Amino acid sequence: MRASYGAKLTQADLARALSEESSAAVATISSWESKTNPKLPPVERLHSYALFFARTPGADAPRLPREQDLTTEERERFEALYQELVGLRDAVHGVADGSILSFKDGPVTIICPEVPVPNRSSLAKEENPNYTRTYRYADLDALIELWGQIRSANPDLQVTRRLAAEVVPREMKGHLVVLGGIGWNQVADRLQQQLGDLPIQQVEVPDLKNGEIFRLRGADGRDFRPVWKELENTSVEAVGTKKIAEDQTEDAWRGGKPRVLVEDVAFLARLRNPYSPHGSLTICSGVYSRGVLGAVLALTDGDVRERNEAFIANRFPNGSFAMLMRVPVVNGEIAAPDLDISDTRLYEWSPSDDITDSASDSGAV
Fold first, then answer.
1. How far lies 75's CA from each of 72, 78, 103, 135, 231, in Å?
2. Which of 9, 47, 119, 165 fits a 20 to 30 Å CA distance from 250?
3. What pTM value is reported for the model?
4. Angle CA(92)–CA(96)–CA(98) in degrees, nearest 5?
5. Among residues 210, 280, 283, which one has the least CA distance to residue 249?
């Protein structure tokens, strides 16, 4: 298609034009047009792609036209091209989809953390006439986001969610998606013990009671911790140590003063399922729930998903990787991690790397 626009049209030109509707990186365009490892663009991108190439080239810089500004001839060309692109995508969907959360076959099982009994809502009690089983699930924000994306990307596959304590051996086959950390997800803890080659571990430390940090194995032994900011507006005595413990907010206090979480750490990995020779293992975890949600949003958020998929495809062409990411927290809300920003990436690893190294030391950009 780009040939029709002339030899001077570059991927950077196309990225700028498509970004007029929604941000598109050069790496994203490159991943779509790769001859060796192509990734499928999302369906919504095909509309912009067809719109761009339907317009008769002019002397001005390439721009994305508005659909209502097309001539009759251009509109016919746009509709034909759009249908052709959608048909081509549908023909290969499930064989070469660009999304990490798209699977060629099933089943897909999401293994979820469980809220400890003392901290559950009263609606999680079966004797309650308004009993709602979902209140037993932890990291609900992340689960809702993840569940919706996986079901949307795999409409023909069996997708099941299970609490970690209820998983049976046959459900460890196929494709596993493990949500949450070792504290509330026993399967995450068990898998960590199985993944001996993975240099990233999640560990409990005595100074944190509500989350578990990430640590590198071996001589490096670096710790990756959340970042807090101290506040001055109240005291432990005003709230009460019993209330703090009941609310599981011990980590939000230091030296008798409150503090607020300003940055969590997210862990995202795609590896071979050690319990299934043909299955995959995807891990979305964090020190706290904000980190878990950040790992999920890196794969689902519309503003960064395409760029992140393109980055992962280029950085880890064999498809297996693990990384730690910063997750900023502003007024309690988080921004989806953007892997194109080097400062977001705290640590990167792939089984194919000759030397395991951090993003800043390995020269990754």
1. 5, 5, 35, 50, 59
2. 165
3. 0.73
4. 120
5. 210
